[in-house]
Amino acid sequence: MTPRTLKLRAGLFAVATVLVAALGAWLLFGRGPLPIQTDLLAMLPATEQNPLAEAAVERLAHANGDRMVLVVENADDARAKDAARALGKALAAQKVFGAVTTELPPFDLQQLLAPYLAHRDWLLTDADRAALAQPDYDAAQALAQRLNEPFLTGVGVPLAADPFGWLQHWLAQQPWSRSPLLPEDNLLVAHRDDTTCVLVTATLDGSSYDDDVQRRALGALRAAEQQIERDYPGTRLLRTGAVFYAAAARAGAERDVHMVGWISSIGIALLLLAVFRSPRPLLLAFLSTAVGVAAATTVSLLVFGQIYLLTLVFGAALLGEAVDYSIQYLSARANAGAHWQAGAGLRQVRAALLLALATSLLGYALLGLVPFPALRQMAVFAISGMSAACLSVFWLLPALLQRPSKPMAPALVHGARALQHVLAKPASGWRGALVALLLLLIALPGWTQLRHDDDVHNLIAQPAALTTQEARIREITGLGNGSQFYLVQGKDSEQTLQREEALETRLQALVDDGKLDGWLGLAGMVPSQTRQARDHALLARLFDDPARLRKVLADAGFRADAIDAYLAAWPGTPLQLDDWLKTPLSTPFRQLWMGCRAQGCASLVLPQGDAGDALLAQAATGLPGVQLVDKPASVSALFGRYRGYASVWLLAAMLLIVPVFGWRYGWRRAPRVLAPPVLGIALTLAALGYLGQPLTLFHWMALMLVLGVGANYAVFLHEGEPHTADRPGAMYASVLLSALTALLSFGLLSLSSLPALRDFGLTLLLGIAFTALLVPASRAGDEVLP
């Protein structure tokens, strides 16, 4: 290939690279907010077979996703309330908040009574229903009991409108009546442990996952917090909300990107300078890597429209593997000395690079088979990036490396030769089998200590400070946990409510046993028409004899006009779900109604408290149309299944590589070429066992890459040594250089703040190190390949 042809190809490749990079830059920066996805839910796979369950998961996750929930605490009652007012005022002045609620609006009792007052003769609590069903029910005694009830702190119904207290009892069981928060001085206040707690909520004017919204909202809150702590000593602010977790995840990812990117870049740069003793190879190696990263980013944005946190950090680590291809070409140039020809050098490394690329892409392709959006994006990112980096070696570097270069640092070559000799010598002849057996015996105890952990919460670490504050806020406010809920389905709204009532009967039994704090469901606020009709029939036994009922009320001292008004309201009308959903009172609870479609209607019931997965699942057992949806548990189970499949995939990948190596190296030599990555995987598993690391899906996915990367090193050594017979150790020096660059990038992931990437990085750190040290053994006793 002539120099002119090489330069023409390089020019075309450079133009294509610039266009791809420009497209990537526009996709990344030219469409508004940075498309970096910090929402954990978006990274998770769909796990529910029922699409409506997945829709419900997303609805609950984002129902309050753009809202801050804040609690102001102070031992001094007045100071806590004043601090809450000051906080609300400070936040309301910031445009980033669409609404801030501190003080309650002017309160009208009718807002709570109106949706129910006209339907009072159709609504009964379980206790009143049971009492009215008794044949010897004494209306006069019930009335006397009502008149002697203590002063009510909740929503009170005028005595004349509800003389027997049936509606009052009904309202006392509603969610707003059971809340630990009570109106006090126009604020929502709870008293806990001699501390006054005041609720403040702030709704963001934008998405919690928008970087600009996060920055402005958290900045405004920080300034307001400093103000109230200064003006009202002893004040403490608790917070929870998606924006805090998203900001923490983004900050952690940015730290990881900077750590992995900068440390690996500096480390790789120093290594390349030390080995090739010139800045030009360094710049060209990074140019090849930059081409890969640009292509990977562009393709990922085109396919997915956004970049996940996991991919962001993983992309910084890809630097160490993408640079391998340019290192092999640069090593071939350095080893050729004055006889260097760019075209001939390319032909020399072509087979090794293509074989290495194929084994790497196989590992990433298997990674992409997992139905997990973040892992699929990582696979697409790696496949496109590695392919582009390799292609740049074929099309770009030859035109830029026409002249010979200095040989590799002699000290490195001599050191690599000595290490190769030390590592290869025990692997010759019968000693090799003995050493392999010894390694397996050392590994055996580690394997026996291996265990698994598929908990999805290990995917991304949640700051302990935030989870502690969220738990405290749940305790103070009574807010439930939306990660578990029941999906109730029926052919129409009536059947759906009936099935919800059957579920709530079982949940009430758990509450009575102290195993559940409560639940939140529509049937508790709007009973089915069937239940309302039964309740109405019980009351009809009294109202069918108006003269007797009038006498009971008159004997108790009720005025005639009040009695007339009360009797005239009978029979009233049943409460309809559609009408109730239109009232302001239903606003906080509308998310519980999924609506009706051609397949039927659906509602959600939220258990409150920690009853345990088994008890919650048992409550739904045998109830038609009722399904417990537990997204974390579902994803964890999916991780477990695919972790189980991963060992089969790993074995399949090994079997797929065997015929390729057999074709290239012959069937007798192929097992020895494959032995380093296979033994590297075995030793990595043993090391993880000794370290007490529970295996996750991410450990197994990393082992896929250990197989690919380790096979690369074996290929580089077997393909390259015939061309460096006059410089023993030079080829192993380039393999060590590739391994060190990978350790500087992938290995740094073991320090990531994201547990998933930490598992990934630790596995690669161990696997790459073991494989690089085992590679010389695969050449022990070999003749130079022709």
Automatic annotation (TrEMBL):
Pfam families named among the record's database cross-references: MMPL (PF03176)
Cell membrane as UniProt keyword: yes
Record field: transmembrane: 259-276, 283-303, 309-330, 351-372, 378-401, 429-447, 642-661, 673-691, 697-717, 729-748, 760-777
Xref: InterPro entries: MMPL_dom, Mycobact_MmpL
Chief location of this protein within or outside the cell: membrane
This protein's record includes keyword Membrane: yes
Topology class, membrane: Multi-pass membrane protein
Signal sequence annotation: none
Gene3D superfamilies named in the record: Multidrug efflux transporter AcrB transmembrane domain
Domain of life the protein comes from: Bacteria
Location(s) in or outside the cell: Cell membrane
Keywords assigned by UniProt, alphabetized: Cell membrane, Membrane, Transmembrane, Transmembrane helix
Membrane transport protein MMPL domain residues: 153-405
Entry protein name: MMPL family transporter
Lineage of origin: Bacteria, Pseudomonadati, Pseudomonadota, Gammaproteobacteria, Lysobacterales
